[in-house]
Design goal:
By secondary structure, this protein is of the alpha/beta class. The protein is built from 5 helices and 7 strands, in the order αβββαβαβαββα. The longest helix has 16 residues, at 73-88. Residues 1-6 have low confidence and may be disordered. One of its GO terms (cellular component) is cytoplasm.
Length: 151
């Protein structure tokens, strides 16, 4: 994969305010906003070993990193809470999911010996760590406690 293709991957995100679909580059910086109504968009994307630094480490927003695998039952249980975090903290948080089976270097970088492993990163540094399945409400409280105060 070339550098250009690593950073050009994008996701389609439906605006919760007006319903328009928006294309957001996974490696974009700043805050995700709707191109039509300018409302804040929930930012949930994926990364691999190849593009992790561009997508997560270089993010200008704090990142909720979800290290998971499709065969992991507790990972599937955590997924709805992770999605809710992207929605609830739109404009304050970027959520990045990394499949540890496809990205073993990223998993090793964050010492993921067990999954699900949730990390909050600020400027690429771990500021909070949560191991294991967490109910959605507890996950949201944990994320909020790890984020800088809302402006």
């Amino acid at each position: 994969m070339t550098q250009a293709s690593q950073t050009s991957r994008s996701d389609l995100v439906g605006c919760p305010h007006c319903g328009k679909r928006n294309r957001i580059s996974a490696a974009a910086r700043g805050v995700a906003r709707c191109g039509s109504c300018r409302g804040l968009l929930p930012w949930l994307t994926e990364a691999t070993d190849a593009d992790f630094d561009a997508v997560a480490v270089q993010s200008s927003l704090p990142v909720l990193l979800d290290l998971w695998a499709p065969w992991c039952g507790p990972c599937r249980m955590v997924a709805p809470g992770v999605e809710r975090a992207a929605q609830q903290f739109a404009g304050r948080l970027k959520v990045v999911k990394v499949n540890v089976d496809h990205s073993p270097n990223t998993a090793a970088r964050y010492q993921a010996q067990s999954i699900p492993l949730l990390l909050v990163l600020q400027d690429g540094e771990v500021v909070a760590r949560q191991l294991g399945a967490v109910p959605p409400d507890a996950l949201l409280r944990w994320v909020e406690g790890a984020l800088p105060p809302a402006k």
